[in-house]
Amino acid sequence: MSITPFLPPVRTLMGPGPSDVHPRILEALSRPTIGHLDPQFVQMMEEVKAMLQYAFQTKNELTIAVSAPGSAGMETCFVNLLEAGDKAIVCQNGVFGGRMKENVERIGATAIMVEDEWGKTIDLNKVEEALKANPDAKVLAFVHAETSTGASSDAKALCELARKYDCLSIVDAVTSLGGSELRVDDWGIDTIYSGTQKCLSCTPGISPVSFSDKAVAAVKARKTPVQSWFLDLNLVMGYWGKNAKRAYHHTAPVNAMYALHESLVMLQNEGLENAWQRHYKNHLALRAGLEAMGLEFVVDEANRLPQLNSVTIPEGADDADVRSRLLNEFNLEIGAGLGALAGKVWRIGLMGHSSRAENIMLCLAALEAVLGNKVKTGVALAAAQKQLSA
Ligand SMILES: *Cc1c(COP(=O)(O)O)cnc(C)c1O
Predict the structure, then answer these.
(1) Ligand 1 contact, 268 CB (< 6 A)
(2) What is the DSSP string of 369-381?
(3) How far is the CA of 373 from the centre of ligand 1 (A)?
(4) What is the pTM of this model?
(5) What are 230-244's pLDDT values in tens digits?
(6) Of 83, 118, 78, which Cα lies nearest the Cα of 99?
(7) Torsions phi, psi of 315, nearest 5?
(8) Which domains, and CATH codes, for the chain?
């Protein structure tokens, strides 16, 4: 057997992540590998921390990049805050709330579920009822930007509720970080995690997390050791901590950290609020085109994520066939529906570097070409262009 090098095609990534990676970030990845305790690498990590504080809008000392994907950031929050026997209130309005429940239960804690329909925002009244009914709950966990449906939830109001009922909040910001408004300190978020491959447009595999001082105190006050050695923040802090001696904990993914550093430099240069604004403007343009074709959004206008656009599949169109033709004929990836929405919707991502005018035009033109008379043709590009130049 002769295996040849793997040369991936160049795709346009407009699904739920990963998003298009900017060439500058790919170039950063190929810079020379140095030791993970090299003073210059340590200095770069300090910059990564400072830039993550900016991205999260926080002064939290414990703001770091976990050396594993977003799911590991999720697990970092749960395993550090919860112990066996604890109780957590978990909101679910899509796929990721379900994973939070799994995390809680594997710790031996109890998950009190607050469920909303897929595609809907989290209902604050139901959450408050659950908090009232469970005064012993330690944690309130929810997803800020539900990538499986395209719905956003009111993180500020949910964290206010958590504080009112003396719970620590765990916030999934994997898809919101860098793409839509997120203010960790102003909103009083206790713990938050994200991913590199969505609106930061970096390569997948790293999870930025941030813990408030109150959350750190809770981790330090645990009665039992964290069940995961790798994710135990008491140990990780010895590696990432400010005056830490940089004791060996694990070998950081050195080159991936260069890439994250580069993506954060780019975010800083653009300006966080400008990045939020760009995501919103491009969403409006894509939306104008999709609606001109006759496609309908799944999520109410008020709770729509600009970076993840879910639309219903038109009558007569074959979901899998359309997506595979987009991929094969146009090198364009869009996302399929998940769970309750499988086969019913497409999820079109406009995340990070993918959120650009040329991607919007490609996506609309390709969809028109593939869908033909199942949609209204000849109008989408003009509608999007009008919005882009507004
Ligand atoms: C993508 C995603 C995750 C998981 O991130 P991975 O990097 O795939 O582990 C978690 N939560 C949300 C909301 C996501 O979109």
Answers:
(1) no
(2) HHHGGGS--SSHH
(3) 35
(4) 0.97
(5) 999 999 887 777 666
(6) 78
(7) -45, 130
(8) 24-268 (3.40.640.10), 272-389 (3.90.1150.10)
